[in-house]
Amino acid sequence: MPAKNSATAAPHGQRLQLASTTGPVAGKPFEAWSATPLPGKANGAGIVVVQEIFGLTDFIKDVCQRLASQGYKVLAPALYDPIRPGIVLGYDQTGLRQGMAYRAKLPAGAALAEIGACVAALHKEGCAKVGVVGFCWGGRLAWQAAQHLPVQAVSGWYGVGIDQDLDPLPKAPVQLHYGKEDSFAPPAQRAAVRQGCPEAEIHLYEAGHGFGCTSRSDYVPAAAKLAWERTDAFFKHHLLGQSQPNS
């Protein structure tokens, strides 16, 4: 599970102003949460963390801190900024409905353009390789990043609708995590992804949707722990060149 902010793990995150150079929001500034390793602890790689439909929540910031504590430079774009800066929603049905409405208002390609700007910023900061991890809506966007952006590894947690994005196939290695009881990503959807992209590394857990988020009632600690162990090993292998254990 994501570690809480602490002076021994990583410096506190901060908000940065970035701007996309491509897509429907080109030239428009947006905020991104930034977390950096302690001095002398950087491993030379970067990771973009992609939010759920609920916005740039404390959970997403905690994920950033968790990864920064391992030596990664981390950015998490605020995907709703083209609509209005600072949108953060509750983990409830009202928040879900509001998030779906905000997502529908975004120009096509705007979210991926923000992710691309974060990837470019990390490369500019000296990161030799960049990965992407996303949750829920961010899981599908992470998959799209593997299709269209210069990234080297992608981990998607309970991404919904990936079966609709099988062309083109990802250019980067992809790892996907699903709860067996996830009604938003049912077995037929997962089977279509597996059939359409046999190279994808897919893991199933005794859980439902949102099992990795510590702020949700759907949180399943055992499943989240195992998914993080696999995600960590996946990134260490593809971003840092370390051997990946069989899992």
UniProtKB/TrEMBL annotation:
UniProt xrefs under SUPFAM superfamilies: alpha/beta-Hydrolases
Domain Dienelactone hydrolase stretches: 39-238
Pfam families xrefs: DLH
Superkingdom classification of source: Bacteria
GO molecular function annotations of the record: hydrolase activity
Keywords for this protein: Hydrolase
Membrane-spanning parts: none
InterPro entries to which the protein is assigned, alphabetical: AB_hydrolase_fold, Dienelactn_hydro, Dienelactone_hydrolase-like
PANTHER family from the UniProt entry: ALPHA_BETA-HYDROLASES SUPERFAMILY PROTEIN, CARBOXYMETHYLENEBUTENOLIDASE-RELATED
Protein name in the entry: Dienelactone hydrolase family protein
